[in-house]
């Protein structure tokens, strides 16, 4: 007997965002995944093909942390970087059968200070603010760690 598969309309779109949330002092917010227990920045897939990268980033930040990336004190920046990677076999069932790779667009969100977060308990269990180098070391995803290590390029006036 074959396992049930999602209908084509329910398949995830293989286009996602990675949003590194940080302070001017280069402290980075990490959130712990409820399913795997690993630490990461905000990530998530487009809800529909027409959703822009920017719209996806704003929505995912709101859903996963409760932070409004459009707030005047926040600065959301498209870092103009894309990672293309193989989808982990354990997660492939979420995508159409012919899909094996994902494109991830990288954003940075500067918040004025350590901002309280409201987690979605179904997705994440904990949050912590860490110095950027420590945060990079703690990330499970290599592309997430690499993005955090690039942070000084995008905050040239902040202390390193």
Structural class: alpha+beta
**Order of strands across the biggest sheet?**
4-1-6-5
Radius of gyration: 16 Å
Question: Roughly how much helix do the residues carry, as a percent range?
Answer: 10-25%
Major beta-sheet overview: 4 strands, mixed
Average pLDDT across residues?
91
Beta strand %:
25-35%
Give the distance, in angstroms, between the N- and C-terminal Cα atoms.
56 Å
Shape category: globular
Task: Describe this entry's structure for a reader.
This protein has helices at 53-65, 132-138, 142-149, 151-154; strands spanning 15-22, 27-33, 39-40, 42-45, 75-86, 101-110, 124-131. The chain is α+β, with helices and mostly antiparallel strands and 160 residues long. A 4-stranded mixed β-sheet has the order 4-1-6-5, with helices on both faces. Strands 3-2-7 form a 3-stranded antiparallel β-sheet. Strand 2 and strand 3 (39-40) form a beta hairpin. Helix 2 (132-138) packs antiparallel against helix 3. The longest helix has 13 residues, at 53-65. It starts with 14 loop residues before the first strand and ends in a 6-residue tail after the last helix. Mean pLDDT is 91; it is low at 1-8.
Question: What structural keywords apply?
Answer:
4 helices, disordered N terminus, single chain, globular, four-stranded mixed β-sheet, three-stranded antiparallel β-sheet, 160 residues, 32% strand, alpha+beta, 7 strands
């Amino acid at each position: 007997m074959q396992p049930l598969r999602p209908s084509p309309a329910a398949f995830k779109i293989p286009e996602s965002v990675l949003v590194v949330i940080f302070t001017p002092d280069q402290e980075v917010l990490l959130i712990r995944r409820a399913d795997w227990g690993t630490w990461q920045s905000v990530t998530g897939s487009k809800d529909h093909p027409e959703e822009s990268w920017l719209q996806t980033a704003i929505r995912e930040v709101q859903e996963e942390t409760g932070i409004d990336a459009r707030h005047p004190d926040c600065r959301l920046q498209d870092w103009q970087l894309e990672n293309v990677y193989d989808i982990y076999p354990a997660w492939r069932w979420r995508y159409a059968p012919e899909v094996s790779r994902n494109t991830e667009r990288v954003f940075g969100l500067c918040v004025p200070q350590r901002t309280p977060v409201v987690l979605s308990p179904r997705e994440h269990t904990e949050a912590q603010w860490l110095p950027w180098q420590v945060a990079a070391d703690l990330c499970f995803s290599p592309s997430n760690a690499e993005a955090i290590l690039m942070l000084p390029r995008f905050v040239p006036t902040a202390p390193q």
